[in-house]
Design goal:
The protein is an alpha+beta fold. It is 28% helix and 17% strand. This is (2Fe-2S)-binding protein.
Length: 172
């Protein structure tokens, strides 16, 4: 990462982030949060801003395959690393199984928590393809939902893990 002095004295850095299979090289301020970089610089608005304290999980993305709160990570800390956002899950215009099962199991109400919830579940299923209900609940414990009561969210994640093919799952 290369430091670049600016005329106003604010330290800026040249960073390259690998996001959803594409590389982006940009100059960012030292204090630019990853969530703001994704939303403001790249228009990847699926990653939501919630509490901005790392408490709600709405900004969860995968950083080198691990679920992280992007409101707690600086863009300069992500330099050279692999980032996956909710926009990076669908392939060839087909939803990822988790996305489809959230729809199939009515795991979405207002939808604000959904991207972060799905990203946390994706990290879980990558490291543990067949989790128990308890493991699912542990994996999404950092993601707050004020609408659903989590029952259908957990059902959706377990369905994706068990490879249940439902209507609209993208695997038909």
């Amino acid at each position: 990462m290369q430091a670049i002095a600016d005329k106003d004295g604010v330290k800026r850095y040249l960073v390259t982030l690998h996001i959803n299979g594409d590389s982006y090289t940009r100059v960012v301020k030292a204090n630019t949060l990853l969530v703001n970089f994704l939303r403001d610089d790249l228009d990847l608005t699926g990653t939501k801003k919630g509490c901005e304290l790392g408490d709600c999980g709405s900004c969860t993305v995968l950083l080198d395959g691990k679920a992280v709160d992007s409101c707690l990570i600086l863009a300069v800390e992500a330099d050279g690393r692999e980032i996956t956002t909710i926009e990076g899950l669908a392939r060839n215009e087909k939803l990822d199984r988790l996305q489809a099962e959230m729809i199939n199991h009515a795991g979405v109400q207002c939808g604000y928590c959904t991207p972060g919830m799905i990203m946390s579940a994706k990290a879980l299923l990558t490291r543990n393809p067949h989790p128990t209900e308890r493991e699912v609940r542990q994996a999404i414990a950092g993601n707050l939902c004020r609408c659903t009561g989590y029952v259908n969210i957990v059902k959706a994640i377990l369905a994706a893990a068990n490879e249940e093919v439902g209507e609209g799952s993208g695997d038909e």
